[in-house]
# Entry
Amino acid sequence: MLRSPFLIGLLLVVLILAGCATDTPAPQAGATASAVAETPRGPQARAWLIGDGARLVAQLDQATALGELAPASSAAPITGTTTLISGTSINEAQAPMPTAQPIVLPRDGSAPPMPVPTAAPASLIPAPASAEAQAAWAQPVSAWMELGMEAIARARLTPNRAARDLAILSIALNDSYTVLDAARAQKIEVSEEAMLASAARQALNASRPSDTAAWQQSYDVAVWMGAWKNHDSAQAVANGIQLGKAIADAIQDRVRGDGATAPQTFDWPESIIPPGQPTPIPPVDRWRPVLPDQPIDPLWGKVRLIGLPSSAGLAAAAPPNWDAVGFADTRTAFAAAQHALTDEQRQLARKWAAASGTPTLAGHWFALARSMVTDAHLDNRATAQVYAALGVTLHNAFVVSWADAYRYLVPRPTNWMRASDPAWSPVVPAPSAPSYPSDSAAASAAAADVLAAFFPAQATQLAAAADEAARSQVYAGVHWQIDTDAGKEQGHRVGQAMLTLIR
# Structure
């Protein structure tokens, strides 16, 4: 007889488990196991342009990196201030240079060992900036993207070029994490904040070299944030700066020669006007620039895509002929809508116009993404992943849309409307580029699809924003309805191609 309560309890557990096993029917011969529904994978982290992060880490020279950091702090003492950052004076203490150590050559004639940097003196780290200045860099990835958008507005870039600049900047921030992981896997200390600051500044300098002074003060704060939080040493900051430069340089090597800097020339019969001759009036059924304006980036469709091997399957369907019934109906509906515009529709047109001197349509979508990553409390790594996917998507959408625009040369509504109603004018000026398909509709549809993969709860809101952006182009008087319909369809295909890359 079992008298121990423990043994009795154990026996009961064994009997219960045995009963559960016998109650489960064994699969019959030839029967197929029921498939478990697979949850779609969300966006996965990836490097876009640098390839193997370990390759860049292997090029790191820690002693040189520290030596390049030291001169800023090792000069003779300076009375007063060294730098003004966001209105705050920063005094920098004198820092001694590390003492050089002799290298002993091995007796067997082999190469001497790599010198290991001595501990960096704490005096290399400048006095902290004000709390207000540091607060501006609580989210460094978003802060650097904001500086990039401000630079685009100052440069008065077109939306296609703005998208490329933002793609390159966001990739520099995103790909930094691939290098950061590779360095830390080798037990190399690297400041995340310094690496981001260095990569971003280098990328911005490459795209907008005339604006270098505009973000230097920001850099002087951002690069030291990790040290001021007491989790980065001076050596970690030095390593981060050197690796950040290497990241940005590697990205520039990849995008150099992508066609963006090629001369944007196009052979138009009207390009050369004999002296004293009147400027020819463009035909209403075929797009031509309204001289003296020249076509905007007519060869942009040849710019290299990022991530996608080709534009196969992404071209817009051919538009209807000008004389086709469908296009005639489109023109009639357009004229009726223009003569019945409401104040709300005009306001919507101006909202999405994103004219020259603004961050453009690309910046509009980045601003929307920033609000989402902030509300979701994403960390810097996840934020950079969102921005890079968005930047690449926008760039690719503009490239394929631009290629079709200059292939089909569909005229803008402007000439036809003014011929039939001289008193009419568009809500916003029409750009000097063909009408079909709408690049705004294509870029917005693609951006909404990709952002929805990161923020599925916001999918409906994002789709509504993309639809609003497309409709605004018709309200503005710069696109036909067929342009926006084709643009949305093209944008969804670009978005799906991008989702294939990131899932």
Notes: The longest helix spans residues 380-408. The longest strand covers residues 83-85.
